[in-house]
Amino acid sequence: MMRNWGKRDIVSIACVVLGSLLLALNIQSFVGTGGLFPGGFTGLTVLIQRSFLKFGGIEIPYSLVNFALNAFPAYIGYKTVGKKFTMYSIAVILLSGMFVEIIPPITITEDILLVTVFGGILQGIALGVTLRGNASTGGTDFISMWISQKTKQPAWNYILGMNAVMLAVAGYLFGWEAALYSIIFQFCSTQIVNYVHVRFKRMTLFIVTRSPDLVIEEIHSSTHHGVTRLEGIGTYYGEPRTVLYTVVETANVKGLVNRIHELDPTCFINVSKSEAIEGRFYQRPIE
């Protein structure tokens, strides 16, 4: 048990460091080159920085603003989402701020469309890496995770809508072209996150098997989900068959299917996407 926890923590720390570095690189390259505004509190930090510089001639550190903005959401996340999740997220906030101060501005390309699309993709990858490490970039990510836990559905598209208010302010202050390109940037980022982050996505499994007891035990032990058992007759050979029905998290599907095939090489499994479910469903808690 301790070794499993150790491995999980090592993966989380590696994802926190890598995700923070990618976020900082994106800010100092694509975001800076295109004058874009990322989503969430990262974008709000950039907006405040540029506002102080344009209207007051004051250059304030990225890390200082970002830390101040995230203080209260981090407290809320600690109380409602998960303690370990919040601590790792705070580490992302601290590290990304430190990396932004260390990494010099980088211009990869000045083509605004390329900057927007690939910047959004890199942002989505960075967010996906941090989420894989049981962390986030803070701010609106805490809100998104809280909504996801309450609704049992991915909430990243809701956050995209919330960012529209910030972009409206940015467009008014700095020009609508940058704000409109930032919408494309955030859309690309959101789609990448939706693709790589599967925690709140579910799949339905219909399993036709000759070894139902072994398969049921495996599903119970590896996923903690229940199973509905139906007895039937295979019409091709007229032999008795058991049909098992269950819904599991998408992340569990590949390993579970492989294990079921080991237990019953002749089984037939139909895997389909579950758009929505109602009723009790075990969700592994965020730590």
TrEMBL record:
GO cellular component: plasma membrane
Entry annotated with the keyword Thylakoid: no
Classification via InterPro entries: DUF2179, N-reg_PII/ATP_PRibTrfase_C, UPF0750_membrane, YitT
Alphabetical UniProt keywords: Cell membrane, Membrane, Transmembrane, Transmembrane helix
Record's keyword annotation contains Membrane: yes
Domain (DUF2179): residue spans on this chain: 225-277
Membrane topology: Multi-pass membrane protein
Residue intervals passing through the bilayer: 60-78, 85-106, 112-134, 155-174, 180-198
Subcellular location: Cell membrane
Pfam families (UniProt xref): DUF2179, YitT_membrane
Name of the molecule in the record: DUF2179 domain-containing protein
Species assigned in the record: Amedibacillus dolichus CAG:375
